[in-house]
Design goal:
about 120 residues; mainly beta; Rieske Iron-sulfur Protein; 4-stranded antiparallel sheet; 3-stranded antiparallel sheet; 10 strands; binds FE2/S2 (inorganic) cluster
Length: about 120
């Protein structure tokens, strides 16, 4: 029996990891796409830093993986209207987009690039 002053029990969302590709298939400057449920995710090797972000511009659904990668800032420019997004935070760096795009943790396990989703 649970005491009256005990904190309520909560269920934590369990993260799922999805396989993207072998690490050597994602060299610096490369972008890979993976789909999870209805979400398209782009995984980018930005100067040996692996980053994952939803592949859909928050302004008007532009395909961000088709945009120009700026490896010096780890940013990508939407090919439709030019908003650039910080791949680490998902935040837009200029208008017309103003809402962030979701980002996802990336890991490497047994030489495979994996993205955590929930
Ligand atoms: S759709 Fe990306 S800036 Fe408009």
């Amino acid at each position: 029996m649970q005491a009256a002053d005990s904190p309520p029990r909560t269920l934590n969302a369990v993260a799922e990891t999805i396989d993207v590709c072998a690490l050597d298939e994602l060299p610096p400057g490369a972008i890979r796409r993976v789909e999870w449920e209805d979400v398209e995710i782009m995984v980018v090797n930005c100067g040996d830093e692996l980053l994952a972000m939803e592949d859909r511009c928050s302004h008007d659904n532009g395909d961000l993986a088709e945009g120009e990668l700026d490896p010096s800032r780890c940013a990508i420019e939407c090919p439709r209207h030019g908003s650039r997004f910080d791949l680490r935070s998902g935040r837009p760096l200029n208008l017309p987009a103003y809402a962030p795009v979701e980002t996802f943790p990336v890991s490497v396990e047994d030489g495979r690039v994996r993205v955590a989703v929930e």
